[in-house]
Amino acid sequence: AGLIDGTAWLTPAAVAVVIAALISLVSVRFRLPTVAAVLVQLVVAAWYVLRLVSPGSLAGGIIPTAATFGEAGEELSYGLELLRFGAAPVLAVPGLVAIIGVSLWGLAAWTVVFLLNRRPALATAPNLVFYLQLATIDRLPSNRAWMIGLALVTAALVLTIGDRQPGKRGRLDRTTGETMPRRSLGLAVVSLVVLALVGSLMPDVLGDR
């Protein structure tokens, strides 16, 4: 049995990963200040959570109302309680799905930013910690899906490290006055493809380990 009952939660989880990755790509591409990029991620992620846990209280399905935050707090508290004390497979209640979505949101945003900045070790460290946490909760042997996922991540790292584009330079750094390495669009595409492929394995990964 999987850790979470059913597969309906996979869609909002995948949406979180895609949105976070796209925001990170745009932030890096247009060199947004770190504070601005983080604020954008936080605001959109907060709206994502509210849309998941209390959609009926949003005015027009978009704008939070006075009732939104109270309902969201209750749902998130219940989801956290299931996460801490529930016996697998737990119900995919809105609060739990939101917690999972935000966790994957953070991982996706972090991974894309550091991959695009040629820091693969920093990009993968949180993902490994997340995997180890899942392995601690669910101690069944890994299956073929995990092997494929690991191979994809390894391939992405090799491409990241090797994609230095020698001799090519980008724009001047405003703070140092030095030219910066040109970022590769191909690397961004590879990053998104790997995220999508790993995400497509999630039903197998969490449903049969």
List the helices and strands and how they pair.
Elements: H1 10-29, H2 34-53, H3 66-85, H4 94-116, H5 120-137, H6 144-162, E1 169-172, E2 179-181, H7 185-200, H8 202-207
Antiparallel strand pairs: 1-2
Helix pairs in contact: 1-2, 1-4, 1-7, 2-4, 3-4, 4-5, 4-7, 6-7
Order of helices and strands: HHHHHHEEHH
Biggest sheet architecture: 2 strands, antiparallel
What is the overall pLDDT average? 74
Distance between the termini: 8 Å
How much of the residues is beta strand, in percent? under 5%
Identify the strand order in the major beta sheet: 1-2
The helix fraction, in percent, is 55-70%
Instruction: Give the number of DSSP strands.
Output: 2
Number of helices: 8
- Shape estimate: flat
What structural class do helix, strand and pairing data support?
Answer: mainly alpha
Low-pLDDT segments, ≥5 res:
164-170, 200-209
Q: What does the radius of gyration come to?
A: 19 Å
